[in-house]
Amino acid sequence: MVTITPRFWFVASVLSVSIPFSQAMAQEQPEVKTWRASFLSIFHGPPVGKLQDTWQPTPQGERSVMPVLFRNYASVNWSPDQNLELGVTQYFVAVPVLGTQFAYRDPYLRLGARDLLPQTVRASWAADLRLHVPVSSVSRGRDLVAGLQTYHNVSTPLDSARRLSAGVVASGRVNFYGSQGLGSDLELYVGPTVGWQASQKLGFSLTYDWGASHWLGEPAGELISDGTDIQPAVSWDVTPELNVSPFLNLYTGKNTNLRGSSIGFTLSLQLI
User: Fold this and answer.
1) pLDDT digits (tens, 9 = 90+) for 87-117
2) Which value, to the nearest 10 degrees, does the dihedral of the CA atoms of residues 45, 231, 107, 212 take?
3) How far is Cα 118 from Cα 115, in angstroms, rounded to an integer?
4) Handedness of CA 110, 111, 117, 118 (dihedral sign)
5) Cα-Cα-Cα-Cα dihedral of 156, 157, 163, 166, to 10°?
6) Is 193 within 8 Å of 21 (Cβ atoms)?
7) From CA 250, how far away is CA 256, in angstroms rounded?
8) What is the pTM of this model?
9) Separation CA 241–CA 237 (nearest Å)
10) Do residues 23 and 36 make contact, with C-beta atoms less than 8 angstroms apart?
11) Spatial separation of the C-alpha atoms in residues 76 and 110, rounded to whole Å
């Protein structure tokens, strides 16, 4: 039996990161370029009722130990054909408060497929495999050797016009450590999503997030829950290359309240 033991109020990994919903549910697939460079930034902001605060809230509405910050991903990808993609992504964190801080995190190598399903099927299934390379000081301090992650994004239209859609994003990551290892050796994420594409440039979505992890040295069947939350979001294609998606983060479960709700946004930019 798998037991879920709440220990942390936040999801520390980036397993929930996905492409903007309006792009995932687009009625027509964009032209595939041989080379593509992109930048993704995710802002984790302050409580809804205290927008001037410099700290993220806990589900209970208290000040957490995490300041407001940006998680940033700069990627370069190469496509040998219309479906396969090889790429490398550099991840770094920017804290715009408390003196402004930057911290580089581990890059990862990526092998992905845009759609694993045949074209005769209305649904789509994008998937990839990622190898995280532990070069950051945080990972070296934890004696991390490598991280292997698989990511899946399945979606299907619910109407003939392809405006209503449902889908799920899922991810699993296994971490390998040396003899002095410290941290999680298994990370899981599932995020069911429903959405409505109101126009060619504007979309709305509602996502339910759940994440959990197993920590090195803990009993095999014990998972640590990162909690659950609901994220309503608006996706706006400002230009064909720029997407902005503001969202709310609403925690669920016991001992939570609206004071723990926070704001955020994602910014996705296609450079080439």
Assistant:
1) 999 999 999 998 888 899 999 999 999 999 9
2) 110
3) 8
4) positive
5) -50
6) yes
7) 9
8) 0.86
9) 8
10) no
11) 10
